[in-house]
Amino acid sequence: MEIDGRARISGKRPIIMVTNDDGIGAPGLRSLVRVLVSTNLYDVLVCAPDSEKSAVSHSIIWSRPLTAQRVEIDGAIAYAVSGTPADCTGLGLSGALFPSLPDLVLSGINVGSNCGYNIVYSGTVAGAREAFLYDVPSISISYNWKRGEINANDFILAAEACLPIISGIISAIKNKTHPTNCFLNIDLPTDIVNHKGYKLTTQGKSMGKMGWRQVEEEAQGPKMLSTMQMETESGVVSDNGTSARSQDSRLFKRELRTVVVEEGTDLHFLREGFITVTPLGALSHVDVDCQNYYKEWLPKVANQSYSSSL
């Protein structure tokens, strides 16, 4: 599904498109765009959701047309789109919105980490995965944000820490050595100033274990920052999806109970202070043991005959 018309970095500045799932006004995206523009090395496009779309995974909108509203961001051509991160990437790569198509797609910087099983839920990762599905190199970027330990300027530092990887990917694209069968997922540690370096990792089975709590109002309770993190210090969070409910209905809200960390994988090394770099694909590979089990199991059950008692 290769997109025709990409610059392919021949005789012109590389074009980088940025999307995210926190919304076009989020500090992570704005910091990343600011740092990219300040290098004076890239032409920067932005196609991002017009509101927060955290944990929407790889969902897309079929039921209605999407609006794309021009937004002023210094040094970039930017649009806010009434869709999901995957919608934004797809629209940005379609040729219908921008006069030129990107050489590289960046999704982020997300507020909160995206590691382990929680990658499945991530809109940030989906923004990069959608580009990968269309044969466009891409990177999803997330920052292990924690209230009280990070200020807005730290997003600038996080974006700057990604520049060597971005530059390296651009060089690989130019030299035609960039692998086409994966994309990258980058997670940045909370203490980005004192990070321990870049660590190639694998996606593990770490995940945030969720529970449910009954609430009286739709806006009651802390806000989920990402699939692995919850804003525990915010009081009441407004919810744009507020709707009337009958006396017979009950309200339940997710809450993060605990985080399970698998040793030797992405989240483990992130918590150790490394910038984790994890190659990802779009296929769901199963363990060999499972494949072998069902190889023997399926013929047995398929050959059984059942008589209906009706």
TrEMBL record:
Pfam families linked: SurE
SUPFAM superfamilies given in the database record: SurE-like (SSF64167)
UniProt cross-references to InterPro entries, sorted A to Z: SurE, SurE-like_Pase/nucleotidase, SurE-like_sf
GO molecular function: metal ion binding; nucleotidase activity
Keyword Metal-binding: yes
GO cellular component: cytosol
UniProtKB keywords: Hydrolase, Metal-binding
Highest taxon, organism lineage: Eukaryota
Domain Survival protein SurE-like phosphatase/nucleotidase: 16-207
Family of the protein in this entry: Belongs to the SurE nucleotidase family.
UniProt xrefs under HAMAP family: SurE
Designated name of the protein: Survival protein SurE-like phosphatase/nucleotidase domain-containing protein
Organism: Arabis nemorensis
